Amino acid sequence: MQKLIVLGTGNAMVSKCYNTCFVLRLNSMDFLTDCGGGNGIFKQLDAADIKRTSIHEMFITHEHCDHILGAVWMLRAIATAMLADKYDGNFTVYCHDGLVEKIRAMCNFTLQKKMTALFDKRIIFKAVADGETLKIAGCKTTFFDIGSTKARQFGYKMELPDGKTLAFMGDEPVAPHCEKYVQNAHWLLCEAFCLYAQADKFKPCEKHHSTAKDAAELAERLNVQNIVLWHTEESDLANRKKNYTAEAKNYFSGGIFVPDDLDEINL
Ligand SMILES: [Zn+2]
Q1: What is the per-residue pLDDT across 6-54, written as a single tens digit (0 to 9) for each?
Q2: Centroid of ligand 1 to alpha carbon of 66 (angstroms)
Q3: CA of 32 to the centre of ligand 1 (A)
Q4: How far is Cα 225 from Cα 254, in angstroms, rounded to an integer?
Q5: Could you say which of 128, 152, 175 is where a domain stops?
Q6: Which end of the chain is more exposed for a tag (fewer CB within 10 A), N or C?
Q7: CA distance 49 to 96
Q8: Whose CA is closest to 165, among 174, 173, 156, 177?
Q9: Ligand 1 centroid to 120 CA: how many Å?
Q10: pLDDT digits (tens, 9 = 90+) for 85-115
């Protein structure tokens, strides 16, 4: 089974949906990427029927609050379970080296000492380098620096259990130096802040974000088979799937997925 379980689909400032984060269920393991902006991560995991204690690997893309603050809550939950003898094995946090100190510092400010005492014993911080390949959930995964000028951010490319490839770009468009990771991918998970038709209103470029049209054109040019669009604005969530899909369809011939929170996609 290889499945994408979408926990959140919104940009940083949303209130009607959760910030973009997700679980990849691969080889019967749950791999969490980003955690959204707070303890809403618990509500989303509960709604998706994912036990916090079933997660043993987590990747954090970058330091912005809509991606990282929920990680403090996840670490609190994991540490609490470990202290109660209700967690098997270790929990590993993957992120770039600059982020390790930031996550640890936030936890040191906000969690009890008995929780942070588990750091480096059962809660392991694994700094990943640009281009480094590791096994995550049993899958060969190459992490890379997406080249953000706002805050250093990493994405990854993964070989799924059935041999398909998945590229995840964090919350910015694909930079030219990252195209090699996206070329011919079966799945591209990428942000689309708004519709091209609404770019004047939402000004995605000012925020280093793009539109459904931009993402679709890029995916077509790089011979991607399927795109997942998220990290969007939330002015019309009821019609987002329909509208974003319709716009992307004009520029991309592959599969188009514009998930709502808690949607599941078979990869
Ligand atoms: Zn973001």
Answers
A1: 999 999 999 999 999 999 999 999 999 999 999 999 999 999 999 999 9
A2: 5
A3: 16
A4: 5
A5: 128
A6: N
A7: 29
A8: 156
A9: 28
A10: 999 999 999 999 999 999 999 999 999 999 9
